[in-house]
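Q: My labmate handed me this sequence with no annotations at all. I'd like to see what the chain might look like in three dimensions before we decide whether it's worth expressing. Could you predict it?
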Amino acid sequence: MNIFSRRPSAVVEPAPAFGTAAAEPALDPALRALTGHWTIDRPHSRIGFSVRHAMVTTVRGAFTDYDSTLYFDGARPSQSRAELVIRVASVDTGVEQRDAHLVGRDFFDVRRYPEMVFRSTSTVHEGGETFRMTGDLTIRDVTRPVVLQLDYLGSVVDPFGYERTGFDGTTTIDRTEWGLVYNQRLKAGGTMVSEKVRLQFDISAVRLAS
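A: Here is what I predict for the chain of 210 residues:
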């Protein structure tokens, strides 16, 4: 799904101190030009999730309101970091009644816990265009580590002159570890909502001005 060209940027910014430098697999030289600060372009990105419903189908949704702070170091990926603050009330599954249930006390309880936060703690280049980012995910004031698998899609300067880069990220969590324990048992066995939730990050990021 590589929709970007491998076009390098002409600007390289110095990397701030972060983490511990270590030997990493060889990188595409074009990645060095991407070093700098970025933000997620919300109209062209998706922070989504999918969960099995009634054991036989999958419900998909997304959060549409969030702030992001990204730093990518193309020479030393271990220095890269990310922070994502999501307004949980923006959840959208395409069904108004279901969304109202999700923001209520059975699930996210947005009146008490309006935000979900991810802050990275380490980044590893696994080879090629694949990275692994570990971070802390906070939901309902419970913080637990998660590991994102990130695939670099490429970079481009769009027709409006913005420099863009793309990443796809995925991870699967057990929602009960964050206190999201609501469920209903089915007569035939199993539960109405799976405890396993797949998180999906389809990111189009725009470079911030120096």
